[in-house]
Write a structure and sequence with these properties.
Elements: E1 10-20, E2 23-33, E3 40-50, E4 61-66, E5 74-83
Parallel strand pairs: 3-5
Antiparallel strand pairs: 1-2, 1-4, 2-3, 4-5
Length: 112
Amino acid sequence: MAETKGIKNEKIGSVVSNRMAKTIVVEVTRRVPHPVYKRIVSKRKKFYAHDEKGEANVGDVVRIVECRPMSKLKRWELSEVMRKAVQVATDLSAIGIAAAREQRVSKKRGKK
């Protein structure tokens, strides 16, 4: 009998969500030929992965490794963050720009 205890399945994908505690959602894209038409199509699948330290952010490219089931959907864990995404600041005061006040515009028309 062949033993395969040391080999675990690995996938590389990008993080699409990290809003849950210690959990990230990783989207893995693969390109395969269509079974009938033989044209290359992209297939996407989302995996829930365990991120103990909370080090992955949205847009990061990560490697996930198969592990024991941790919950109903989580069967993967974060192995490493391969490439960090560029984080864009939404707070304009952090870069020295004062945010303009938004004026509320009424959609009601005045009576004539």
